[in-house]
Write a structure and sequence with these properties.
The chain is α+β, with helices and mostly antiparallel strands. The chain has two helices and ten strands, in the order H-E-E-E-E-E-E-E-H-E-E-E. About 20% of the residues are buried.
Length: about 150
């Protein structure tokens, strides 16, 4: 009886340890977004499968003050899969103050019509194919460049 209990305990321990090592999987992506060669801070980048029938996943990320962004797989979220993605880019600011809203307030202010996009409209047009595309591969995708032009 004690031997059975001990074997069960050891088996469960091995099982728990093996699952503990299994974190979120999927490619990671990091890079920089620029507008006319200058880093684009506080930009919203929306990655979506270029071909919606492929169902590769989607992700929205915000760039930092140097225009850098990172997408890492998360445990409770479907990760991106390798493939071709369209990237739509926006930089939302308050129409009156020109200030970038907090991430928490962004959607409400957009819906209320209180924001304007500083990125040329062609980079965020939902009615046409994205102007900017990237190919995401398995594993780590470093130094992805999203280069936008103002005119």
């Amino acid at each position: 009886m004690k031997l059975r209990f001990l074997l069960l305990l050891v088996s469960l321990s091995v099982l728990c340890i093996s699952f503990a090592g299994c974190g979120p999987s999927g490619p990671s992506v990091s890079g920089t977004v620029t507008l006319d060669g200058q880093p684009l801070s506080d930009a919203e980048l929306q990655f979506a499968s270029f071909d919606p029938a492929q169902r590769l996943g989607a992700e929205t990320v915000r760039s930092d003050a140097q225009g850098k962004f990172t997408i890492e797989p998360q445990a409770r979220k479907t990760p991106l899969r390798p493939g071709k993605y369209g990237v739509r880019v926006y930089k939302w600011v308050d129409k009156k103050t020109g200030q970038v809203p907090s991430a928490e307030d962004l959607e409400q202010l957009k819906l209320a019509g209180k924001l304007k996009n500083l990125v040329p409209a062609k980079y965020g047009d939902l009615e046409s194919n994205p102007v900017t595309t990237v190919e995401i591969h398995s594993g780590t995708n470093n130094d992805v460049k999203i280069e936008l032009r103002g005119r």
